[in-house]
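Section 3.1: Structural characterization of target chains.
Under the original work plan, the team committed to producing a structural model for every single-chain target entering the pipeline before any wet-lab resources were allocated. The record below documents one such target. The sequence was received from the expression subgroup and is listed exactly as submitted; it comprises 350 residues.
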Amino acid sequence: MDKAPSLNPRRQHLLEIIVADYIETAAPVASQQVARKHDLNVSPATIRNDMAELEEMGYITRPHTSSGGIPGDLAYRFFVERHSLPTRPSRQFEIIVQGALLRAAADPDTWARHAASILSDDVRNVGIATTPHIKKVKLKQLQLVHLHDNEALMVAVLQDATIRQRLIHLETARTQDDLTAIANRLNSILGGKTADEIKTAWDAARLPNAADETIISEVLTLLTDEERDDHLHQYTQGLHHILNQPEFESTLSARDAVEVLESGIELKRIIIERSGDSGLEVIIGEENPEQTLRPYSVVLARYGKPGEASGAIGTVGPTRMDYTRAISSVRYLATFLGGLLAALDDDRPS
């Protein structure tokens, strides 16, 4: 979005009032309404003139000269920047978050699902959360279990304690003792390494063993699959909340919202594109890179450790959303989820 035209202090205050009133009522804000409700120490005529200037600058729109003002994306961006300092959510929200997530199973997938639902109920819009995703997955330990003749079960324990299993077929039959010896040898070479590091280590080791080659190939395929962005698990909760907003009263707009938000494809693309970003981000209307998301605003924050295990938590709603509440709630949940994830990592055996 282009740099916003500068405003004098009086018009800044007026614009903030218009945005706040419109967020609350979803009705165009008239100059008479502003004059009655707010003590600006100026005449209604001055308010009308200022609103005309705000319209000329692109901050608000007015269907008719005599009608009230409706904030545009530029006005919402102004409002968000004015309220960008961190604020705490309500104590009730904090209690709900702590109670639900601390009682839940110590599992990042469960935390993400609960967090999306809690956020949605709080901001009355769609809540989204992804489970932690690791860009560079490391193999922690490998185990091989004999099944039958030349068939074995490969059990791979990953850095984040995730367990993956693969059925492998060896060229010749192996006993459990053989498989245990192979696993011990490979763990000494591959333990704690990423797929790229395993390739390098394996090239340097040059062990001419067909069984080793088969197992290494399976490990590399497994790690590469885990690192793919399409493995990102995303929860989308509370579509009914957004459909209750005045913006989606028409059948067409409601149908569009269901199609876009229920699939979550565009949201996932935004999360993936911003996978290296930290902190909180507010994307308003036309700022959205995805065309189908431009009727909406997205408030998104990452949690965890970028480059290691990290996920995202956020909300999606009409551009007329309560940004102050959304920002404080998303920021609090991101911090809380990050703490849970760090504690889980500390509790895991090394």
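The domain at 139-229 is CATH 3.30.390.10 (Enolase-like; domain 1).
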